[in-house]
Amino acid sequence: VVKERQIVCLPLKIDADSPFARKSIKNCGIRQQYKATIIGIERGDLPIINPDIETVIRREDIIWVMGGDSMVKWMIADDLLQER
């Protein structure tokens, strides 16, 4: 078991090539693959806080994810985030 040192919350911009686009939160695999939880979605001017698992992620959404240190490392490795 990996011990996480901190909780991280960050935005992911969803483009047409995103592995999450056009999938429901339930079926997008973010929890299984990255140990992350989607806590919100910015959809244009509409904030969706604590979205239902059946909510479909759309191109141009910004999804807010929360997880630990490992989530960030795995997302950088999969080129979902730019390392700073």
Tell me how many strands there are: 4
Q: How large is the share of residues in beta strands?
A: 25-35%
Largest beta-sheet details: 4 strands, antiparallel
Placed side by side, the strands forming the largest sheet appear as 1-4-2-3
Helical content (DSSP H or I, runs of 4+): 10-25%
Average residue-wise pLDDT: 92
Helix and strand sequence = EHEEEH
The outline comes out as globular
Task: Count up the helices.
Answer: 2
Low-pLDDT parts are none
Rg, Cα atoms, Å: 12 Å
- Give the termini distance in whole angstroms: 27 Å
- SS-based structural class? alpha+beta
Describe the structure.
The protein is an alpha+beta fold and 84 residues long. Helix content is 17%, strand content 30%. It contains two helices and four strands; from the N terminus they run E-H-E-E-E-H. The longest helix has 9 residues, at 69-77. The radius of gyration is 12 Å and the shape is globular. The mean pLDDT is 92.
